[in-house]
Structure formats: C-alpha cells, structure tokens
Amino acid sequence: MVTYGMLQAFLRGACELIFPDNCLLCRQFLNSRHQRQLCAHCLGSLEFNPTPLGRQSTNGSFAFDHAWSVCLYNEPAQKLLHAFKYNSKTSLSKTFVPLMIDFVDRFALPLQKFDLITPIPLHPVRRRERGYNQSALLSSGLSRHYGILHSEDLLIRQKQTSTQTELGAKQRWTNMEGAFRIKSSTDVEGKIVMLIDDLFTTGATVHSAAQALKTAGAARVGVLTFSITV
Ligand SMILES: [Zn+2]
Known about the structure:
Blueprint lengths: L3 H15 L21 H5 L21 E7 L2 H12 L6 H14 L9 E4 L4 H7 L3 H13 L2 E2 L4 E3 L11 H8 L3 E3 L9 E9 L3 H12 L4 E9 L2
Parallel strand pairs: 1-7, 2-3, 2-6, 6-7
Antiparallel strand pairs: 4-5
Bound molecules: zinc ion (ZN).
C-alpha cells in the first residue's frame, strides 16, 4: 500500500533529481556534489562532540555499556534532524553517515568488535505514516561501510509512545518503559550489539532498547547517535 509518507518521499527524491543542489540550511547554490548537501559555512556550523562519549550514567542506571554521539544538538543540527525525520529528507543520510564515519575513525572507536548493528525502530503505525525509519537509514549505511551485520527488525517497538519532545525528563522515562521487545532472542544471545539512533536526549529510548537486548542475552550493547542534546 502506498502511504502519504512514501509518496512525499518519492516526490522529494524526484525534485532533487530535476533541480540543482542547494545548501539544505541556507539554500546557497552548491557547485560541487561533494559538499554533503551543505555549504562549507553551514557544515562548519555543526559542533562536533569534542569527546567520543555521550552522557554517561553516574549511578549505573543505563542498560547500555557506553554511548557515543557525533555532534551537539545546536540550531543547525536541530534543523537538519527535523528535515530528516519529519520532512522526508531521507537524502540527509548521505550527509550524516559520512560524518558518523569520520567521527568513529577520528576516535578509533572499535566498531569492528560489534557482531551486529540495529536501529531504534519506530512503532509500525508511525513507520507506515513516515514511509521510512530515519535511524535505519543511518544504521544500514554504517553497516555497509564497516561490514557489520545489519539487523533492521531485531527490535520491535510494541508501545506507541507519545512524542518524546513534548515530555519532561521524568515522563520520558515512564513513557519508554517496556517500549521494546526482541523478535527472536537466538539472534541476540551472547552478541555485542550496536544500537543506532538519530538523537540522544535523556537516554530513555536507548536505555529501554538496550534493556530488551540485555534481557534477551546480549553480551554488550553500545549506542551511537548522530546528535546529543547539551
Ligand atoms: Zn549553507
């Protein structure tokens, strides 16, 4: 069935083929296709995380073992992620994935130690409406680059949660309790799993997904997100 989200994504893709590239943020004409859809000025306005680590648990309450985030959630990152998630700008994965790879390589993060890589899933209803899962676009690109097995359907979002952005920190945790289950624990037992998401805010979403993975027998769970709130 063709959904509105799929149609919108198709039309945007068709427009990008017909019209020349402009910077996604300032609309300046790009004379090179190698600028990752951003002009040098806008690309430079993204603030990269000075350390590989994201927000760490101080009391051992996170179910994942570590979290890495590529850039800070400043205004340009917010605009890009909004377009990526809500405006069908799926081509942004071609901007984000190379930036994530640069980051992993710069800090020599041991991605090759992971057995499989999986995205935070959307609830099936939201996935149908949107036409794509933005985190799966990131995880599949990283999987191809590093040669790690991609398992897009490993986690199932069983709870249709309200949008996290409208909730306070405490509500975000309650909202995400029991949000995920594992399709088959035999795929997970003893495995080192890399979870991919677009944004790390309180960590409630990735914690809940990591908890489902650990309960199913995952040996270790790492998290990599494109952005992190400051
Ligand atoms: Zn620009």
